[in-house]
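Hi all, posting the design record for the shared folder.

TITLE: backbone redesign
STEP: 1 of 1
STRUCTURE INPUT:
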C-alpha cells in the first residue's frame, strides 16, 4: 500500500454502482470526518478495482493524494469478480440485512448531529489517511470470523435428482469461479447454492413485520372525537404503522414541516435531513392508502442559505416517493397565495434580484395511475366570455392550434373545469379558530393552510363517508373541512398546545364568519407596467 497522485488512477468502465448524489454527499461527509479508513484498490497500471466513489469524491474535494493497495495484474473477468467481492466484504453486511431494514436503520440516525461532534480532518495530511497505519493479518481468521455471514459455514448434501444444469458464458463462468474461490467455496455449484439460500432468506426476512425496526417518538392516543372524526395526540408514525389498518384510507391530504434553513417552532427538518426523516412516513402512507386512494402533499420551497438560489429538496421528495415507494404523480398543483409577503427580503426588497415567492407546490400522488377522482365536484364559475358564448353560440371549426371545436362545446356543464393553480389567500386571522385561541390564551399554529385547500381535494377525490387522514394535523384544518363535508377523518399532531386550540374548530359556531370569498383574485400579465 502506498500514496499515489489521485490523477494517476483511472476508474474502470464496469463499476456496477451508480453515482447517486446523496450517496456521494455521505461519502464526502465520511471522508471529511474520518478520512480514508480503507485504501483504494487498483491494478499496477492504475485501474481502480474498488473505491470508485471515494476516488470521485476525493477529486471533487481537491485531495491531491490517495492511499492505494496495489493488486496483481488481472484479466477483465477476474477484475470484475474482485470488484463485486470487495463491495460485499467492505460493506460488512449481515446475511439478514436487506435494503429496506438498512434504509430504516439509517433513517433513525441523525448523521448531521453525529458528524458535527467530530472535527474535520485536513486532506493531504497524515491524519487524513488512517488506513496507512493498518497492519497485515492472515486471511484465515477473517474467513472463520465471518462464517455464516457472507461465507457459507457448512455444506448440505444434495440429492442427485435435485440437480439441474445452468448455462453461463465464458466470462460469467470465469467471474463465478473467481468469486467462489475468494469466498472459500470449493466449486461454483456450492457458491450458487449458497447465493440461492441467501436470496430465499432475504425474501423471508422482507416478508416479516417491517415495523419491528421502526422507533417511535411517542405512541398516539385519541385526544378528541367528533361525529365524523378523531384527533390523535402523538407520533403519526405510530398511527400509520401500528393503529390504522392497511388500505383503510381514501385520501391523505397534509402539509408536512418544510425543509427550511431556519428552524421553526413546529419542528421542521433541514433539507439535508429531510428525505431520511420522511421515509418512515412514506412507507406508512403506502401502507394505509387504498389502492385507488390519493396522497396530497402541500410543500413549500426553500432558499439556499446565504444565496439567491433555490433548494431542490421538495423535488427530491417527489422523485423519492415515485421511484423508491412506487407512487404515481397524478398531477402537480400550485397554490398561489395572493397575500404572501415579498420574501426573502434580502433578495426581493433590498437587492431586487428575485421576485416574490408566492407559490407552494402540491404533489398529488397515488399508488395507481388512475386514482378515484371526479372534477365535476370542483367546477369553477364560467367566465363572462364563456357565458356569452353559451348564450349566443359560436362557429364550429378547426382552430390553428389543431383543436376541433365541435358542437359539444355548446353544452352548459354548470361550470368550468378549474386549472391546477389554486388561488387562495391565507388570511384567516379573524376565523373562529383564531378567535378561540385568543380568547383562551392558546398558541395559534403559525403554519396553517387555508380551508379552501383541503376542501378542493376532499371534494375532488372522495365521497361522503370516505376516510380522510392528515398525519401532520397541526390545528386540524383538514379535520374541520372533512367534518363539514361529512367525511370520516383522522388528524394526528405531536404538539399538544396546537391541539388545545384545534378543539375550537369543532365547537358550535353561532357567530361564525359568513360565506367564503367567491370573487376571483386578480393577477396582472407580465410587464403590465411600462418601465424602462
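Okay, here is what came back for every position:
SEQUENCE:
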Amino acid at each position: 500500500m502506498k500514496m499515489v497522485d489521485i490523477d494517476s488512477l483511472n476508474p474502470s468502465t464496469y463499476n456496477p454502482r451508480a453515482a447517486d448524489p446523496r450517496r456521494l454527499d455521505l461519502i464526502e461527509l465520511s471522508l471529511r470526518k474520518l478520512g480514508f479508513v480503507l485504501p483504494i484498490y487498483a491494478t499496477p497500471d492504475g485501474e481502480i478495482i474498488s473505491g470508485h466513489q471515494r476516488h470521485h469524491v476525493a477529486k471533487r474535494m481537491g485531495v491531491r493524494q490517495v492511499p492505494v493497495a496495489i493488486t496483481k495484474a488481472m484479466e477483465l473477468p477476474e477484475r470484475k469478480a474482485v470488484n463485486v467481492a470487495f463491495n460485499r466484504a467492505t460493506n460488512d453486511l449481515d446475511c439478514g440485512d436487506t435494503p429496506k431494514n438498512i434504509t430504516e436503520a439509517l433513517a433513525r440516525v441523525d448523521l448531521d448531529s453525529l458528524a458535527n461532534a467530530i472535527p474535520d480532518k485536513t486532506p493531504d495530511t497524515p491524519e487524513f489517511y488512517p488506513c496507512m497505519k493498518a497492519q497485515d493479518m492472515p486471511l484465515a481468521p477473517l474467513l472463520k470470523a465471518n462464517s455464516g455471514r457472507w461465507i457459507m459455514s457448512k455444506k448440505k448434501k444434495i440429492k442427485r435428482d435435485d440437480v439441474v444444469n445452468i448455462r453461463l458464458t465464458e466470462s460469467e463462468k470465469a467471474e463465478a469461479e473467481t468469486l467462489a474461490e475468494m469466498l472459500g467455496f470449493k466449486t461454483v455449484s456450492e457458491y450458487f447454492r449458497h447465493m440461492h439460500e441467501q436470496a430465499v432468506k432475504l425474501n423471508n426476512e422482507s416478508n416479516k413485520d417491517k415495523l419491528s425496526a421502526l422507533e417511535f417518538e411517542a405512541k398516539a392516543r385519541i385526544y378528541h372525537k367528533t361525529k365524523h372524526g378523531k384527533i390523535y395526540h402523538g407520533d403519526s408514525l405510530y398511527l400509520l404503522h401500528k393503529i390504522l389498518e392497511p388500505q383503510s384510507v381514501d385520501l391523505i391530504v397534509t402539509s408536512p414541516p418544510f425543509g427550511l434553513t431556519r428552524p421553526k417552532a413546529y419542528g421542521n427538518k433541514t433539507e439535508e435531513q429531510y428525505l431520511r426523516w420522511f421515509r418512515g412516513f412514506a412507507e406508512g402512507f403506502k401502507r394505509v392508502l387504498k389502492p385507488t386512494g390519493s396522497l396530497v402533499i402541500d410543500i413549500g420551497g426553500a432558499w439556499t442559505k446565504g444565496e439567491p438560489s433555490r433548494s431542490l429538496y421538495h423535488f427530491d421528495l417527489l422523485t423519492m416517493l415515485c421511484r423508491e415507494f412506487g407512487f404515481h404523480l397524478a398531477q402537480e398543483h400550485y397554490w398561489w397565495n395572493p397575500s404572501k409577503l415579498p420574501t426573502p427580503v434580502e433578495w426581493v426588497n433590498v437587492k431586487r434580484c428575485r421576485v416574490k415567492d408566492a407559490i407552494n407546490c402540491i404533489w398529488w400522488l397515488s399508488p395507481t395511475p388512475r386514482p378515484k377522482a371526479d372534477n365535476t365536484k370542483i367546477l369553477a364559475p364560467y367566465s363572462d366570455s364563456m357565458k356569452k358564448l353559451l348564450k349566443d353560440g359560436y362557429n364550429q371549426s378547426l382552430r390553428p392550434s389543431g383543436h376541433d371545436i365541435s358542437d359539444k362545446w355548446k353544452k352548459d356543464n354548470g361550470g368550468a373545469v378549474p386549472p391546477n393553480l389554486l388561488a387562495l389567500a391565507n388570511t384567516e386571522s379573524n376565523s373562529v379558530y383564531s378567535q378561540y385561541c385568543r380568547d383562551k390564551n392558546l398558541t395559534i399554529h403559525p403554519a396553517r393552510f387555508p380551508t379552501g385547500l383541503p376542501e378542493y381535494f376532499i371534494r375532488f377525490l372522495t365521497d361522503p363517508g370516505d376516510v380522510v387522514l392528515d398525519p401532520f394535523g397541526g390545528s386540524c384544518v383538514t379535520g374541520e373541512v372533512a367534518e363539514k363535508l361529512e367525511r370520516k377523518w383522522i388528524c394526528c399532531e405531536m404538539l399538544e398546545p396546537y391541539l388545545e386550540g384545534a378543539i375550537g374548530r369543532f365547537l358550535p359556531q353561532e357567530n361564525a364568519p359568513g360565506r367564503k370569498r367567491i370573487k376571483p383574485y386578480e393577477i396582472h400579465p407580465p410587464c403590465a407596467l411600462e418601465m424602462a
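COMMENT: Residues 448 and 475 are 7 Å apart (CA to CA).
Let me know if anyone wants the other runs.
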